[in-house]
Design goal:
about 270 residues, alpha/beta, TIM Barrel, eight-stranded parallel beta barrel, 9 helices
Length: about 270
């Protein structure tokens, strides 16, 4: 059965002890953990005992070390690469397989859309960077999980497939965030995009990010799960059929929406 988690900093920033207790009190199985955003302490990568002690239950489903792999500033890019590799090095010791990132934007910071992101040269540049990370992951018994988004280089499931085929390693996996692939021009085809993701990427998918949205003034605005346009009855059914072991991680679900969203998703999983 699919286990359900949450991006830890959507709950709050606090100590490992407090965060683990809070996550468990909601009823989540695990977290997507971004150290700098979720923990109110400086993490010593050489001494992880405090984190390890408290994050067995709930588990760490993924370490978030998101960086921009095509950042035009080489210093920023190198810093991101080095920080990501630190996470790959420690993931196994934290009983966590996956370290996640998106595929970036030539805009730099913020990671917005520019037309060059969707050109072949940008894809080739991303492949070189991810290839380096995957080679490192192979040595450290960990896995790189890449995530596509319309504004970024991997703007579609097909683009993610191209990266997987080019690198061809069992240590490269995929996070599917359906909302990330959507924009005002294609959101009505969301289920077709979801099915395309399953068809092209199912063997490598390890995580699904769960988000919901409404269209307000021509913009896709995120809302609590079950409050928007996503057909989670169908989406969860398809995940259970195709990827019953994948982690389901809430991202961008905050405040009062956390409890209602968890109840909603767990009831669907249970067939209620």
């Amino acid at each position: 059965m699919n286990r359900v988690g949450i991006r830890a900093h959507d709950i709050d920033k606090m100590s490992p002890e407090e965060l683990a207790k809070k996550v468990s009190s909601y009823g989540f199985d695990g977290v997507q953990l971004v150290f700098k955003k979720a923990l109110d302490m400086e993490v010593d990568f050489n001494d992880l005992n405090r984190i390890k002690k408290h994050f067995t239950t709930p588990m760490i489903m993924m370490l978030g070390a998101y960086f921009n792999p095509v950042h035009p500033d080489s210093k920023v890019l190198i810093q991101g690469l080095d920080y990501f590799k630190k996470h790959l090095e420690i993931a196994f010791s934290l009983n966590c397989k996956y370290v996640g990132t998106e595929t970036g934007s030539l805009m730099g910071s913020p990671w917005g859309y520019v037309k060059e992101n969707h050109e072949q040269k940008a894809l080739e540049d991303v492949i070189l960077v991810i290839q380096d990370l995957v080679a490192f992951a192979e040595k450290k018994n960990s896995y790189v999980a890449i995530e596509g988004a319309y504004a970024h280089v991997a703007y579609s499931p097909k683009r993610i497939r191209e990266i997987l085929d080019a690198i061809n390693s069992p240590n490269l996996k995929v996070t599917i965030d359906l909302f990330n692939f959507l924009h005002i021009g294609n959101y009505q085809e969301r289920m077709e995009i979801f099915e395309e993701s399953l068809s092209l990427l199912k063997d490598e998918i390890v995580i699904f990010h769960l988000k919901d949205f409404k269209v307000i003034d021509g913009q896709l605005i995120q809302v609590g799960l079950g409050q928007g346009l996503m057909d989670y009855q169908r989406i969860i059914q398809r995940i259970q059929e195709v990827k019953p072991d994948a982690y389901l991680i809430f991202e961008g679900v905050t405040g009062h929406d956390i409890e209602t969203s968890l109840t909603y998703i767990k009831n669907i999983i249970k067939g209620k």
